[in-house]
Automatic annotation (TrEMBL):
One of its GO terms (molecular function) is molybdate ion binding. This is Substrate-binding domain-containing protein. InterPro entries: ModA/WtpA. GO terms for biological process: molybdate ion transport. Transmembrane segments: none annotated.
Length: 235
């Protein structure tokens, strides 16, 4: 069974589909690429059984008939965190709590940073929108450095290409050469819900639904938490 996902969920999905296979469900080969490329390939009709993307992107694919809207299922919630370069660190640890006390402190940190790294994904779009709402677009525009599609912000930080980086905590945790300061403060938090859906081009839609149900169940919550994701609220 074939699936495609954005880079943000590649590690957690590897463990989730392994758990599904251990439970006797069909094996799933997940290809992880930049979210924009993943959505484009699905929209162009490339055959996949399952699609895993941010819920907004997945909703647009459902509206266009490329995935089954009835199967769109939230799987994990990701918070955006802030990190800085830290040469010599083997694996960044995810702290428990926000990096700064409030949005005002976050604004001051951005204003003091010479180069600010952000992603091509939904977290990057939300960060730029927040900067615009704060009226800082002109002042910070020349200092914003967008990572290339499929390249984590952590790599730019570790290479010294940026001085401050904002990306999903799950993408920063465990990466070498960086220190995670924490998530964004509550009054300017950015969260992304990543979801799954069965593609309308699926060759095994029943098997895909069964895998998706397992991935949304509490049986795999511990895997999601281990990868620095939160579990979506269940009805």
């Amino acid at each position: 069974m074939r699936a495609i996902s954005s880079m943000a969920t590649r590690h957690v999905l590897a463990d989730l589909v392994a758990a599904a296979a251990d439970a006797g469900l069909p094996e799933v080969e997940v290809e992880s690429v930049g979210g924009v490329d993943a959505a484009r390939r699905v929209a162009e009709g490339e055959p996949f059984d399952l699609v895993f993307l941010a819920d907004g992107a997945l909703g647009r694919l459902a509206d266009a008939g490329h995935v089954d809207a009835a199967t769109l299922t939230p799987l994990v919630v990701s918070e955006v965190a802030v990190a800085v370069p830290a040469p010599g660190v083997d694996a960044a640890v995810a702290p428990d709590g926000p990096a700064f006390p409030d949005a005002a402190a976050m604004r001051e940190t951005l204003l003091a940073a010479p180069r600010i790294g952000y992603s091509t994904g939904p977290s990057g779009t939300a960060l730029v929108a927040m900067i615009e709402r704060w009226g800082l677009a002109d002042e910070l525009g020349g200092r914003l450095v967008q990572a290339r599609p499929g390249i984590p912000v952590a790599a730019s930080l570790a290479a010294g290409d940026v001085d401050l980086g904002c990306q999903q905590l799950s993408e920063l945790a465990g990466q070498p050469g960086i220190r995670i300061l924490g998530t964004l403060p509550d009054d300017c938090a950015i969260t992304t819900v990543f979801a799954g859906a069965v593609a309308t081009a699926a060759t095994d839609p029943d098997g895909a639904r069964a895998v998706l149900a397992l991935l949304a169940s509490d049986a795999v919550d511990a895997i999601k938490v281990r990868h620095s994701f939160a579990v979506p609220a269940r009805a």
